[in-house]
Specification:
alpha/beta; 283 residues; globular
Length: 283
């Protein structure tokens, strides 16, 4: 990946470099989840390329329904051409088995579909919204993007997550302060088989906790045990007797026998903490 824009530039200067990169692509198909990064990237692409942009969102059991609605609303608000495709990651035994390379197989399917759409409709390149901070975490999906020549312009422009939020806020994007999001498969410890039923259980539990007012939530699925993560600043509120009673009742009704609250609070990729370096190699 191109790193020449990474150092010594302000966020505004990096945004100019991003615009320059996008202008050079001429026309793009953009992988669009409706999250902070892909929304910002899509917005800038639309500003630069106008009608030479097609946003594509995957509809899948891996993604909560409110993500799909948010993506539709954003594309409609900014007049961006938007297509919804169905993907079926669970059809792959390699994905369902949930090895550390799970995300690689998911992105291979998605990016292959996007490349086909680009070729069919005459778009030059496919882009996706990973930012510089993603390169410091375990992200097998980035290997898939490299192999399939899907471009990551936020990385090439040197833009970090905080800078995406800053620039999104400056542009008055409604997504600037969204909590970090990841597909529902990230709630399962590696080598735990993923099923549509388990995904739905996690989605329903997290939706309920958001209805209780928690900004950032994860339910990590450990068989009969649900390990709940909320922001450290929200732990004390979770332990309020009224809130705790409602949360326990709902989550037990979803089928969990045991419920724990992670006292470290929410953190990105907490299930990666158990990985050994050797286990991070993608076949």
């Amino acid at each position: 990946m191109n790193t020449k824009y990474r150092k010594g530039l302000s966020p505004e200067e990096k945004e100019k470099q991003l615009s320059k990169l996008l202008r050079g692509y001429v026309s793009v198909v953009a992988a669009f989840s409706g999250g902070v990064d892909s929304s910002y990237l899509l917005y800038v692409a639309q500003m630069v390329l106008r009608d030479k942009v097609l946003a594509v969102t995957s509809q899948s059991p891996l993604y909560p329904q409110h993500h799909l609605k948010r993506a539709k609303d954003f594309a409609r608000r900014y007049g961006i051409a938007h297509t919804i495709i169905a993907t079926n990651e669970l059809a792959s035994p390699r994905f369902r088995s949930n090895s550390p390379s799970r995300c690689y197989y998911c992105k291979v399917e998605l990016f292959t579909r996007l490349k086909e759409i680009a070729a069919e409709k005459g778009y030059n390149v496919v882009i996706e919204g990973s930012n510089v901070d993603d390169t410091s975490d375990f992200r097998p999906g980035l290997k898939a993007s490299r192999e399939l020549k899907v471009l990551s312009p936020l990385i090439d422009a040197g833009i970090t997550k905080d800078e995406v939020r800053y620039l999104s806020r400056k542009a008055s994007l409604p997504t600037w302060n969204l909590p970090s999001s990841a597909c529902l498969a990230s709630r399962f410890p590696y080598h735990t088989t993923i099923t549509s039923e388990k995904l739905k259980t996690v989605e329903q539990g997290e939706d309920f906790l958001r209805e209780l007012g928690f900004q950032q939530v994860r339910i990590r699925h450990h068989g009969d045990l649900a390990r709940i993560e909320v922001l450290s600043s929200e732990i004390s509120r979770f332990l309020d007797s009224n809130v705790l009673e409602k949360a326990v009742k709902k989550i037990k009704n979803l089928g969990y026998k045991y419920i724990t609250l992670d006292l470290q609070g929410y953190r990105t990729g907490s299930l990666n903490e158990v990985l050994k370096t050797s286990a991070k190699e993608i076949p």
